[in-house]
Prior knowledge:
Helices cover about 70% and strands about 0% of the residues. By secondary structure, it is mostly helical. The longest helix has 23 residues, at about 45-65. The protein is elongated and about 55 Å long.
Amino acid sequence: MKFFKSAETFFTKNSLGFVFIISATATLGSLFFSEILGFLPCKLCWIQRIFMYPIAILSGVALYRKDINVKYYILPLAIIGSLFSIYHYFTQLFPAETGSIFCAIGEASCQTAYTFAYGYITIPMMALTAFILIIVFSLISKK
């Protein structure tokens, strides 16, 4: 029982640091996929980036200033970003049934899954995982 109390204290105390690490990794990862590997980001990818990139900046500044109240700015960004990730993930899993209102002909396709590891991990699933972890760490942060 003491271990769980120690783990809870550790994660609660360092939650903002975890938010920064997760969002910075997601930001750098998206740039790696597009700029190094040459994966063309579709419109849904860009929308998810629009919600992830500010989280990295806000959490970095808040970590430096020790401002835990930043969670009130981070949570809406992460929640909205996760909704776009869910939509994008299902667009890739079921392309014929769902289609996408965001992607136009001649642009990068939102239905292209550049990665498909373990039978379910695509780039939108990676983004969704990051957004969910950011939401959880924001919610458990010290008041």
